[in-house]
Amino acid sequence: MKHLTLFLILCLPFSLLSQKKVPAFEEVLSLKSAGTPVLSPDGQHMVYTMRQTDWTDNGYDTEIWLKKAGQEPFQLTNNPDGSSSNPQWSPDGKWVSFTSNRGEKSQVHAIRIDGGEAIALTHEDESIGNYAWSPDGKRIAFTRYVGDEDQEKEREKRYGAYAVDDGEYKLNWLYAVEVDPYAPSPTELPCYDPKDSTAQEWDCIEWPAAEALIDSVEYTIRGFEWSPDGTKIAITHTPDPLINSFFDADISILDVASGEVQTVVKNPSADNFLAWSPDSKTILYTSDIDNRTSNYYKNSRYFRQNLETGIFKELGADFDENLSGLMWTETGIYARAYQKTIRPLFKMDPNSGAVTEVLGDIRDLYGFDVTRDGKTFALSGAQMGEIGELYTWMPGSAPQQFTNYNTQIADWRVAQSEVISWQSKDGATIEGVLHKPDDYDP
To answer: Model-level pTM?
Structure first.
């Protein structure tokens, strides 16, 4: 009997292996995946995007999911004709905004976390690019491309759609619009028709008009961010949107009250804004200084600059590898970075510039979000041989997983993964991941 038990135990792995299947091409493409979660201002809730395959329309559909404190995640948006992306929280934590094409152009919409239909917050003739709530929640700043639409339509009508490569393009400028999700809709009291001679004028309801914050300038805006106190907006801009123009990126600060724009970082090579300090007095940025040749492969350089004094200091000079997704909180600057084949979470001291690892439990950290006090994190990442999952984490504890996307591949035959290393010509240790078939015999 003992021999029979041992025989069954030895055969069990092979029996289970035989039950595994090789997934079809369509099954691989149909895997669902989640984006980086975004925390509510109080750190209690989070939203994230989930992408799935739409075989009927031959594409992918992305919608937004909500996880409330202590509850299971559920789908928040459903756009039958398109996707919903770029979720953000209103400063009061009552609304989730997102961009979605629910008409002819992509606009910013918002939906209450307590339920209800989504409403549009912007009503522009052109699609919205990046957007962000003002810290007081009264306005949304956004970028959009500007061009002569009438001229383009006339040309397309006569000659067909075309563009001169590297010769013509639209510039991306910055605008803001007042937002009040509770405001009545113009459909409740529309404006009178001036063409109707019998119509009388009345106090009708109109959508708020967008205000130009930065327009009619000879550059395009690549990114922007409100200061925590809401008085300033930092922008990264280049002369045009062409790919190689990143070499000429500079950083300017818009004073929201006066409308004055001042360039604060302008080096011979690329300068890119990263984050505001919590007190709104200092900016964090990356710069190649005057390097326009080897900046393609050398590590990025990080600096902080006081806007009042203009004094700047380099940070993280002793750290090998590039930091990404930097976020400045009250407890320090957090970022992720590769260290050979793993990508942990790091913390940079904004004063000394020292960089230390703070979380390595998740082998490949795809992305993260953190509250301003630096006490609550939301993470996305994967372990060896798995697909990505989402986690919550508070420093001093272990990450808590709240999704189960790996159940999709539980019965699949997958490769055996092994980390290998070798010496480069200069003596550096190089790491890689070797994927072997499940029937590999050494």
So the answer is: 0.89
